[in-house]
Write a structure and sequence with these properties.
By secondary structure, the chain is mainly α. The protein has a domain of about 210 residues. Helices cover about 75% and strands about 0% of the residues. Helix 1 packs antiparallel against helix 9 and helix 3 packs antiparallel against helix 7. It is globular and about 50 Å long.
Length: about 300
């Protein structure tokens, strides 16, 4: 699952923007594949905690190399830490989901996020939503139901966790609209890594101390620690690529490229776990992607009309 920072300065270079965004979307599912692989021996809560710890450490190393250590929290400490907590919660939901379902299926369901964001923006920010976008939302949610139905029957309510991920990520993006980012990428990465580490670490301590569910802390061996480090590094690099892409191209240009995640997740999921979505899942994916692309188009039209 990815990170985005849409509130950044733009200097147009469409080709570079497309290449950077494509690169980010192609490597992000590798993080989810590793999380699924590790979940056979480490609880997803610990994996998610490891992701944010190592993301923080990677960010800290870069800060030391650049001889620039930002103040924790930056210019917006409360907002930045809240961003980190929302991202950590979303990542936890997603990593639990991929333990039980294929990464491609989970990512496909997650892509109801543009529909959820549109609904939340209408309810909270009072943004206008016309009948066309309402229709697109209905189509996208229908696609999600097509994918969810067999998974609900097979693995139960855990199949709804990608939807929970989408809701949490939508609140993260909504927070960015309410409070535009005022810090640089390194400060944001450090803040998110620190906030996520503290938040998930506290949950992990409580869960292991009081035997909540099946949470058991496992000291990772060298191989597992290396994979957790790789997850943190991928998270750091993917976020940087996305930010760099949005600095060079508009959201309307880059938004359709996010669906490359499904392609990458399908490829790596097949190579590592021999998972491949069935025909009905592809029908649902088609409806979700089509709906998301149409919502992006209508958002561009709305902004152009507003001047």
């Amino acid at each position: 699952m990815r990170q985005r920072s849409p509130a950044i300065d733009v200097s147009e270079n469409p080709l570079q923007a497309i290449l950077l965004m494509s690169g980010a979307m192609l490597i992000v599912p590798v993080m989810d594949i590793i999380a699924k692989y590790l979940s056979s021996s480490i609880h997803p809560l610990e994996i998610t905690f490891g992701r944010f710890v190592f993301q923080f450490l990677v960010s800290l190393v870069f800060a030391l190399i650049l001889l620039r250590l930002p103040r924790p929290g930056g210019q917006q400490p409360f907002v930045n830490f809240l961003r980190g907590i929302l991202l950590a919660s979303a990542s936890l939901c997603f990593f639990i989901a991929v333990k039980y379902m294929s990464v491609a299926t989970a990512i496909s369901i997650f892509f109801v996020e543009p529909m959820i964001l549109t609904i939340l923006a209408a309810l909270i920010l009072k943004e206008p939503v016309g009948p066309r976008r309402i229709g697109a939302i209905a189509v996208g949610l229908a696609g999600a139901l097509i994918i969810l139905r067999p998974n609900l029957a097979e693995i139960g309510l855990v199949s709804l966790l990608p939807v929970a991920t989408a809701v949490l990520f939508s609140f993260y993006l909504l927070l960015n609209r309410l409070y535009p980012v005022r810090d640089d990428l390194l400060t944001i990465q450090l803040s998110a890594g620190l906030a996520g580490s503290l938040y998930l670490g506290a949950i992990l301590i409580v869960a292991t101390t009081f035997d909540v569910g099946d949470v058991v802390f496992v000291w990772p061996n060298a191989w597992q620690a290396g994979l957790l480090t790789l997850i943190g590094l991928i998270s750091f690099c993917a976020h940087g690529l996305v930010v760099a892409a949005f600095q060079r191209g508009s959201a309307s240009l880059l938004a359709p490229l996010q669906y490359l995640e499904i392609v990458s997740a399908t490829l790596f999921g097949f190579l590592v776990f021999a998972d491949f979505p069935d025909l009905l899942t592809w029908v649902g994916i088609g409806l979700i992607v089509g709906s998301g692309l149409y919502i992006t188009h209508r958002e561009r039209v709305r902004k152009q009309a507003a001047g």
